[in-house]
């Protein structure tokens, strides 16, 4: 979520670190460390060589999309919000996120109805009454795992990581399917940003080991969990996202993995301090 007008800006020291952080996006590659999470024993799927989008299985014609709306915050009175457009966001999506009409967004920004918006564009959202995470779910039989990552950076947002992954040669930019923000760089604490890969139902670029790019949904949290912990709101959003994904795609609990838990992955991602016990508690209480 972009900052409300008049709210406190990010500390200058965070902004100074953007250029340094942009070169470091992604999981750190180290030897796996011991985790409090029980060691999973998945059967590694067979990787495929295709780099084309994976079509939903058993679906013909237009896709039917189930949208889960997760309330994240409410305001006592409407406020004006300045929103920075992330990859694949649309005015329809923004209207659902902030509880305002599409017409009012177009009018506030002097745009013609149906006018395209672009990544990084700053839009005025007038009379915002709420903020909701919008989780689109698509029919697709290929998703059998969920792989949890951290960005290994203190700050981040989808647009910055998208550009960084493009510069590193990741096809189609942002390698994860979902990114959960930590409240830095103008995004909401616990905000779920949806990757273009997920909107297009394409395979990921987040875990080569075990063929997980083809069958695993990549979910990353902004933060370095070798040094710190996710925020409580990040954990709540992660648990809600995992509950929806596992239910819709019938993914068993044993197939929820940390990046470093995937056989053949040489990494400690999502960090030695990632609170697997807290995630299990949240999933059980949901």
Question: What is the topology?
Answer:
Layout: H1 12-16, H2 18-22, E1 66-84, H3 91-98, H4 102-108, E2 122-137, E3 145-150, H5 158-167, E4 178-182, E5 189-194, H6 196-199, H7 212-215, E6 216-221, H8 232-249, E7 256-258, H9 276-285
Parallel strand pairs: 3-6, 3-7, 4-6
Antiparallel strand pairs: 1-2, 4-5
Helix pairs in contact: 8-9
Structure in words:
The structure is a single chain. 25% of the residues lie in helices and 21% in strands. By secondary structure, the protein is an alpha/beta fold. A hairpin with a 6-residue loop joins β4 (178-182) and β5. α8 (232-249) packs across α9. Residues 1-25 and 28-62 have low confidence and may be disordered.
Give short descriptive properties of this protein.
globular; 286 residues; 5-stranded mixed beta sheet; two-stranded antiparallel ribbon; disordered N terminus; 9 helices; alpha/beta
Task: Give Rg in angstroms.
Answer: 18 Å
Mean residue pLDDT: 80
Structural class estimated from helices and strands = alpha/beta
Helix content: 10-25%
Main sheet, how many strands, which sense, barrel? 5 strands, mixed
Brief summary:
With about 290 residues, the protein is of the alpha/beta class. The protein has helices spanning about 10-15, 20, 90-100, 100-110, 160-165, 195-200, 210-215, 230-250, 275-285; strands spanning about 65-85, 120-135, 145-150, 180, 190-195, 215-220, 255-260.
């Amino acid at each position: 979520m972009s900052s409300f007008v008049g709210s406190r800006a990010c500390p200058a020291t965070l902004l100074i670190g953007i250029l340094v952080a942009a070169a470091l996006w992604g999981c750190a590659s180290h030897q796996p460390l011991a985790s409090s999470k029980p060691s999973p024993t998945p059967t590694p799927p067979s990787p495929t060589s295709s780099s084309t989008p994976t079509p939903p299985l058993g679906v013909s014609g237009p896709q039917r999309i189930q949208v889960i709306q997760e309330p994240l915050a409410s305001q006592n009175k409407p406020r004006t919000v300045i929103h920075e457009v992330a990859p694949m966001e649309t005015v329809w999506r923004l209207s659902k996120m902030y509880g305002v009409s599409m017409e009012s967004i177009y009018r506030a920004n002097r745009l013609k109805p149906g006018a395209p918006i672009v990544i990084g564009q700053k839009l005025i959202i007038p009379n915002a009454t709420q903020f909701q995470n919008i989780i689109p779910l698509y029919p697709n039989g290929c998703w059998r795992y969920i792989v949890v990552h951290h960005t290994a950076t203190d700050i981040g947002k989808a647009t910055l990581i998208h550009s960084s992954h493009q510069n590193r040669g990741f096809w189609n930019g942002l390698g994860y399917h979902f990114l959960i923000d930590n409240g830095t760089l103008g995004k909401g604490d616990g905000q779920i940003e949806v990757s273009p890969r997920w909107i297009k139902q394409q395979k990921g670029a987040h875990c080569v080991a075990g063929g997980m790019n083809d069958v695993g949904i990549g979910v990353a949290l902004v933060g370095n969990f070798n040094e710190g912990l996710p925020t409580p709101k990040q954990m709540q959003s992660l648990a809600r996202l995992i509950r929806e994904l596992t239910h819709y795609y019938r993914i068993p609990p044993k197939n929820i993995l940390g990046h470093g838990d995937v056989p053949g992955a040489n990494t400690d991602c999502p960090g030695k301090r990632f609170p697997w016990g807290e995630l299990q508690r949240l999933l059980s209480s949901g």
